[in-house]
Amino acid sequence: MNTKRDLIDGLSDELMRTFRRLRRSERKELTPFGLTFGQARALRLIARSGGGMRIGELATALEIVPRSATTMVDGLENAGFVARRPDPDDRRSVLVSCARPGFDLLDRLADVRRNSAEWLFAPLSPEERRELLRLLQATGKEPS
Amino acid sequence: MNTKRDLIDGLSDELMRTFRRLRRSERKELTPFGLTFGQARALRLIARSGGGMRIGELATALEIVPRSATTMVDGLENAGFVARRPDPDDRRSVLVSCARPGFDLLDRLADVRRNSAEWLFAPLSPEERRELLRLLQATGKEPS
DNA sequence: CGAATATCAGTGACACTGAAATTA
DNA sequence: CTAATTTCAGTGGCACTGATATTC
User: Fold this and answer.
1) In this structure, what is the dihedral angle of CA atoms B66, B19, B131, B125, given to the nearest 10 degrees?
2) Taken in order B118, B123, B125, B129, is the CA torsion positive or negative?
3) Global pTM value
4) The B53-54 sheet, strands edge to edge
5) CB neighbours of A56 closer than 8 A, spacing ≥ 6?
6) In this complex, which of A12, A41, A124 lies closest to B22 when CB atoms are compared?
7) With pLDDT > 90 as the criterion, what percentage of chain B qualifies?
8) A113 Cβ nearer than 7 Å to chain D strand
9) Average pLDDT rounded to a whole number, residues A109-138
10) Nearest to A48 by CA among A106, A112, A95
């Protein structure tokens, strides 16, 4: 049982350590584009949605509360990367969609993301990467 | 090469998602103890150091800049969990060590941490957990 | 002198809660 | 009326940079 505790402890530590390195690297490379780590993440999701995304949808996808998604969209909108428009079918809702400057950025953003991550995963073979992805995807979704 | 990009993208996404879930869960369980996620992490390291740790050492271990470690120790010290004392061998330095209330907390803190993480790793077998740990440990340490 | 150590002051990112307004 | 959706206001965590004092 001591080994079990050590294992979970180590997993927590390594998970945190690895994520923080990834985020720091990506942040640094994102700075010249005027985007933060979180904004880039949101922009990817919004662009992928095509026709437009409600704030609540975005919040769910980002796993944050809707209020926080509002602020995130504010930043992207002020920078001109996304646009808000009212939902014609539900006047409570707002649809957020990717604006032209946002679309123009997507390819370079993908490059940045890949470059930021590549050094991190470089020591892993393609098979190991797939296995890592599989294991991460298998983790639990909610605290029981 | 499209598959390669998708793989790295997915790894980044899953790594972030998994870490954030862990942190959120641990934060929630840590609240009653008056500790934040970062403080708990620092306290573990300080306690493990035994005789005392310099701020710079702690910063290196936490992978943050020394100035941020100062603030983190401030919080732990104000709460009475750690104590600062001057380094007798180097008057520029301060040694941070775990105080009695901090020691008293360690066991319960370990429980919290294990409980917070267990649901996350529950779907993984012991072998898979060891493999996940190995893969995370194998990731790169510095942006090339 | 230059280098190391810790601290002070300010800032940015980002998540949270609670309350209010609008509409389904 | 209740529930859903977004937004406003404020707060907390935590990382950063730059400047300063002290000491090696």
Assistant:
1) 140
2) negative
3) 0.93
4) B53-54, B94-98, B82-86
5) A66, A69, A93
6) A12
7) 92
8) no
9) 97
10) A106
